[in-house]
Amino acid sequence: MRAIGALILGLAIVVALTVAPSRAAEDQPAGQNEANAPSTAQPPASTVPVTPKDAAPPPSVTIIGASEAHGVLGRDVRSAAGEDMGRIVDVIVDRTGHVRAAAIDFGGFLGVGSRKIVVDWNALRFGKIANKKDSITLELTKAQVAAAPEYKEDTPIVVLGASGSLQPLQAIQ
After folding, report:
1. Which of 97, 83, 93 minimizes the C-alpha distance to 159?
2. How far is the first Cα of the chain from the last one, in angstroms, to the nearest whole number?
């Protein structure tokens, strides 16, 4: 047991002797270290400002008044005749980020039996949507929307539009 204690004590002394000189060199006053150091053309690293190569510019800020813009997801959609058409559940954009259409959760009762239908963004009218209870008007009849095929992700999208205003997507190379 004494041999193990002596071995541990010996190791502690050896470690202390090797660490002490390196700490003493670190603790020297700044003038002594710099006098012994070779002269270099660059200032010490601590005073050089660090600027990443890909530094992002500061973001822009736009303030939109509370009465000037509103979210559309979850908004009720009604026909011009006041028929309940469902609610907007998704917004479809093309590869350039331009809004092309809206997916409407149409039909059913309390979400049962409903299906998603995609309508042209230009067929929607956002007249008065001052609060969440205001609805968006769709320029299609309930019968027209009911006849549209269901929207499924990762399949070609059939967009139902009013008066043929939708232009086909152009292939972006």
Report:
1. 93
2. 79
The three-point CA angle 116-118-119 to 5° equals 135
3-class SS of residue 88? strand
- Could you list the pLDDT tens digit for every one of the 173 residues in the chain? 555 655 565 555 655 555 555 554 555 555 555 555 555 555 555 565 556 667 788 888 989 887 777 888 988 999 989 899 999 999 999 999 999 999 999 876 666 778 999 999 999 998 776 676 778 999 999 989 988 999 988 888 899 887 655 455 554 44
Whether 100 and 169 have beta carbons less than 8 Å apart is answered as: yes
Q: What are phi and psi of 41, to 5 degrees?
A: -80, -20
Report d(CA 127, CA 139) in Å as an integer.
12
Note the pTM of the prediction, 2 decimals.
0.57
For residues 115, 120, 122 and 123, what is the CA-based torsion angle, rounded to 10 degrees?
Answer: -50
